Amino acid sequence: MTDLPLDPARIRALFPAFSEPSLAGQAFFENAGGSYTAQAVLDRLDHYYRATKVQPYGVYAASAEAGEAMNLAYERIAAALNVSADWIHFGPSTSANTYVLGHAFAGWLKPGDAIVVTNQDHEANTGAWRRLASYGIEVREWAVDPRTGRLSLATLDPLLDEKVRLVAVPHCSNIVGEINPVAEIASRVHAIGAILAVDGVSYAPHGLPDLTTLGADIYLFSAYKTYGPHQGIMAIRPDLAAQLPNQGHFFNDSKPRYRLTPVGPDHAQIAASAGIADYLEQVATIAGPAAAGDNPFRRAHAAMRAQEIAMAKPLLDYLRNRNDVRLVGPDDPEQRAPTIAVHHREPGVEVARRLARHGIMASGGNFYAWRLMEALGIDPQHGVLRLSFVHYTTPREIQQLIAALDAEL
Q1: Which residues are the signal sequence here (predicted)?
Q2: 43 to 286, 373, 379: CA distances (angstroms)
């Protein structure tokens, strides 16, 4: 792992957490719950609070600057996703955003329409859609293979017919980690005239995708898991967003940014989210011309994934060779995100507690994937140990984790 596409020292210099004395020697393996925040994001947040913490979009200078900072965030996040700024909506969290979308679809779908959901999802994604059953919507479940946790395209096809209006899937599971073939799913869904909503929360930290290539009509992810502030971001095809019933104040019906985010998202955090794009451009600079991609965001994505694949290999090799744990999901690092769950005879949280003695910050539980746990034959109360990392993790920390597992499992 010496020839990595990203220099860990240069990457980590862009995060204040890695120079924080209280975190020295602590290896962070709970990134699926939230990543460290990049300095570029904190700089924008600090400036907003110091200079423009007023109502935005007003007539005086500070207010106008505040509005411009927010507008920039919409534009920058859109550029990173390869869509136009009118795709982007900010809300307080992805859970809240999905809940609001579910309510909007309840007023748009008709009794007798069908939707498809999976049991591979975080409950925030699948639960909001399943509630549509109370409105007379038929809910069909695309079920995982109980042995592997995989979603097979062969089992999706029989669920798709002219009644289906929406299919909701995860880009990858927060437990299984396998990267689902979203572009192929989109092709099947669009062939029957349906909409594809993708929960990207567990994928986006490993590189914001090109949504134009991916083909999703809705893509949701969390800014606080992609090196930013605690906000949820959803990209929605503008013509679809315009068709959905207004979820905000009646007098804001003509304002696209207000119609699907009724809670009133934090202005400063929206402005700070432009720093996510700033950070990704810094990653692309560190990666250099060797990284594949026709713009900085695609090069950052490619370098981040290559970095993670290289570091996941020794950890997956180690876990594959243990006969006292069950590795959930594929053992090929190229097929999955580095969110790695293992089932052990002890509850996951108990193993995590012992790992903490070795400077490993991890956690255990069901991580709101209750239905998936049951499908895999794992007691959700017992849960799994989850070890999640991103591109700023170092090879040394991977070895620190393996040594801790050796001592405690």
Answers
A1: none
A2: 20, 40, 43
